[in-house]
Design a protein that fits this description.
The chain has 132 residues and is an alpha/beta fold. The chain is built from five helices and five strands, in the order αβαββαβαβα.
Length: 132
């Protein structure tokens, strides 16, 4: 049985469980030349996933503004995947402000790459695609 504190913590995240995308799923999309490609955005300091736009750590106001400018040029139904990968989710200063911004800007198809540990452990070590 879940404790009330565990339930409250789960509800405090700006994303829903169905808005998490598994690394294997995103890697398969990137590697499929006929699949529609989402806009992949790095919102942290970690290395770049193939095809990702590097915004930089969005806990810094300048980078959050860069993200807002980038998103202002996109359709609201565009599939968008954000990731950081600097550290475990619970400690990450970047994914929450980025995801909240997507919600505030009324995007309808945003996902968070599920990197519960970091980019190296959850993406690079599996040989998933990186920029050259």
């Amino acid at each position: 049985m879940l404790s009330k504190s565990a339930f409250a913590q789960d509800n405090s995240e700006p994303w829903k469980p169905e808005q998490l995308i598994a690394p294997l799923e995103l890697a398969a999309i990137i590697n499929n030349p006929v699949a529609p490609q989402p806009l992949i955005i790095s919102v942290g300091p970690a290395g770049l996933i193939k095809g990702a736009v590097d915004i930089g750590p969005v806990h810094e106001k300048e980078n959050l503004n860069k993200l807002k400018k980038l998103l202002s040029e996109e359709k609201k139904d565009r599939e968008i995947v954000i990731y950081c990968g600097c550290c475990p989710f619970q400690n990450c200063p970047n994914i929450r402000p980025a995801f909240k911004l997507l919600d505030e800007m009324k995007f309808a198809n945003q996902k968070l790459l599920n990197l519960p540990h970091n980019l190296k452990a959850d993406w690079i070590n599996y040989g998933y695609p990186l920029n050259d």
